[in-house]
């Protein structure tokens, strides 16, 4: 938009509130990533294993946003909260896999075999968690009534992200 010198545009009202909310969510997201890394580095006593787990976080976000797009949802406060839920569950699944892989490696198993066995062993608990989350969120995603559209975007983000992340 070309404006004459001395003029500017700005968000007001609801647009300004949304802009501030997304800015605050971005700060919360970056801080949560830093704290997650610090806790994981302390837990695994390694600077590399947390990076492996954090990669899964960044791989889950596009799937959550893709599901939101495919089902016609909007990016709003609820869908961003759904992304936070999705990130937490995906992080937990990655921790299960990395932790068991490290346990097998400590027992003397080669890296590739340890990764394959850890994935085979942890597949059922991860699938059970994923299916439970999807089953619990489907009524919210498909809900009818007043205010259901706003909550549906959160549920669609979580359900679609979990389904696509498998």
Structural class: mainly alpha
Number of helices: 5
CATH homology group: Multidrug efflux transporter AcrB transmembrane domain
User: How is the main sheet built?
Assistant: none
Outline, from the CA principal axes? Answer: flat
Count of the domains = 1
Extended strand count: 0
Low-confidence stretches: none
Kindly report the average pLDDT value: 89
Using the coordinates shown, work out and report the CATH topology: Multidrug efflux transporter AcrB transmembrane fold
- Proportion in β-strands: under 5%
| Cα-based radius of gyration, to the nearest Å | 20 Å
Distance between the termini: 43 Å
CATH class: Mainly Alpha
Could you characterize the architecture of this molecule?
- With 166 residues, this protein is mainly α.
- The protein has one domain (24-165): Multidrug efflux transporter AcrB transmembrane fold, CATH 1.20.1640.
- Helix content is 80%, strand content 0%.
- It is built from 5 helices and no strands.
- Helix 2 packs across helix 5 and helix 3 (77-106) packs parallel to helix 5 (148-165).
- The radius of gyration is 20 Å and the shape is flat.
- The termini are far apart.
- 20% of the residues are buried.
- The model has no long low-confidence stretch (mean pLDDT 89).
Helix and strand layout, with pairings?
Layout: H1 14-44, H2 49-70, H3 77-106, H4 111-141, H5 148-165
Outline:
With 166 residues, this protein is an all-alpha fold. It is built from 5 helices and no strands.
